[in-house]
Design a protein that fits this description.
CATH architecture: 2-Layer Sandwich
Oligomer: single chain
Largest sheet: 4 strands, antiparallel
Pfam family, one: NDK
Subcellular location: Cytoplasm
Structural class: alpha+beta
Keywords: ATP-binding, Cytoplasm, Kinase, Magnesium, Metal-binding, Nucleotide metabolism, Nucleotide-binding, Phosphoprotein, Transferase
Helix content: 25-40%
Radius of gyration: 14 Å
Protein name: Nucleoside diphosphate kinase
Enzyme class: transferase
Number of helices: 7
CATH class: Alpha Beta
């Protein structure tokens, strides 16, 4: 059975017109496929579930404001080693540390507005898919 991961193209990716570029990079990977996709502005309840482990951290409130500031694209991507692969394609969280050829290295400008989220483990992917796509969990 192929691995599944949740990917969020954040409000900055949508506002800057980078959704097609990022989706293209994901779709061009051999053996990966989009299993679900939805454009929506994320509500407080969804974000609170998604970012529960960050409550109380200094970046939590600014992150919540940013993530609810406009529409995001939520995706389920399936394929071999897709969790590790999408994270490598995304690049390091800090765009100054993300290598050229990665999404963040090529397009992101600041750490908080870094274009893309990708699940970091099979357990996170399962939890996050349940939050964003309960019918696909």
């Amino acid at each position: 059975m192929p691995q599944r991961t949740l990917v969020l193209l954040k409000p900055d990716a949508v506002a800057r017109g980078l959704v097609g570029e990022i989706l293209g990079r994901i779709e061009r990977k051999a053996g990966w496929r989009l299993a679900a996709m939805e454009l929506r502005t994320l509500d407080q309840a969804t974000l609170e579930q998604h970012y529960a482990e960050h409550v109380g951290k200094p970046f939590y409130e600014p992150l919540m404001r940013f993530m609810s500031s406009g529409p995001s694209v939520a995706l389920i991507v399936e394929g071999e080693e897709v969790i590790e692969g999408v994270r490598a394609l995304a690049g390091k969280t800090n765009p100054l540390e993300a290598g050229p050829g990665t999404i963040r290295g090529d397009f992101a400008t600041i750490t908080r507005e870094n274009l893309i989220h990708a699940s970091d483990s099979p357990a996170s992917a399962e939890r996050e898919i349940k939050i964003f796509f309960p019918a696909h969990a």
